[in-house]
Amino acid sequence: MRIVDAHLHVLDREWIPREVRMAWARQASGRRTELRDPAAMEARVMQRQSDPTGALTIAAFDRLGVDAGLIPVVDWTVVGNAGPDELTIEGLHDHHDRLAETTDGRLAFCAGLDPRQPNAREIAERSLERPACVGFKLYPAAGWLIDDPQYDWVFRFAAEHDRPIVIHTAPLGGDPLVTPNSRPAAIAPVMQRYPTIAWVFGHAGFEAWWMEAVDMAFGWQRCYLDLSLWQRSADFDYGEFRRRILLAKQRVGAHRLLFGSDIIRGPGDDADGAQLERWIDQFTALAEPYEGSPAVLSQEELELAMAHAAVDLYRLDEVRATIGTRGVAT
Fold this sequence. Notes:
Blueprint: E1 4-5, H1 18-30, H2 38-41, H3 55-64, E2 68-72, H4 89-102, E3 107-112, H5 120-127, E4 133-138, H6 152-160, E5 165-168, H7 184-193, E6 199-202, H8 210-218, E7 223-226, H9 231-236, H10 238-252, E8 257-258, H11 274-284, H12 299-314, H13 316-329
Parallel strand pairs: 1-2, 2-3, 3-4, 4-5, 5-6, 6-7, 7-8
Helix pairs in contact: 8-10
């Protein structure tokens, strides 16, 4: 069976602005019984989750039979007040171009777009020239309102060029974010204005907003539920996880469910792909009975959610063909 991880990240700590890393250090400090100095902790942020060449990711994919992955790039540079010595968002996109080239197109990506960038329109236009870039990733929680009319050009552009838009819709995040800006309900005014866009609810509201995400997706022709992070629900209560997937399938159809992990792999975090392997096993078991309850998905529905929906939405086979041709030509 074909498998696509339709939401993962390949990063290096130096690709994240210092102020964002410091915010994450403050988060980590606050989760400890005895508070520690965030400044002392910052040096360790992302050390365990750095895989800049994608070597660990592709090795895990090969071991587990994962065909391809989709990286929704986040533009942290505005909320993180990135300095002149730090990586620009276009520099980050260049890194993802190289990841696509060196993996023969197995790692495609959505361009991270923060419409507050002074050159945001140029970033959007240039994304069309990047062969492995298949859409946009928006992160309103970074401090902007998605239904502000001044940003409507983003959605007109996406509609004109038939580019899917992935939006982070999980309340998880915290410092330095304004998390309610990414609530599924906050997206509704823009969806109403642009009903033909392919909207992807990144993380499908996990966890506090999951039902809101499912209910909203029900009413739109091209709204997809990206199920990355839902492995945490499966770990906590597998029976409840199955009930949630069943409801999602009944509301939107398996052809609009996307298997994904949100894993940021590195030497200290899922280096060998064991976490992804467990998640694949949990998801594929949806096509089997469980504790006296029937299967949640048919085999055909499972194959849609595990790969085919993402392949069609993000044109992943086209990316592979294009990158492969470029590789032969050079």
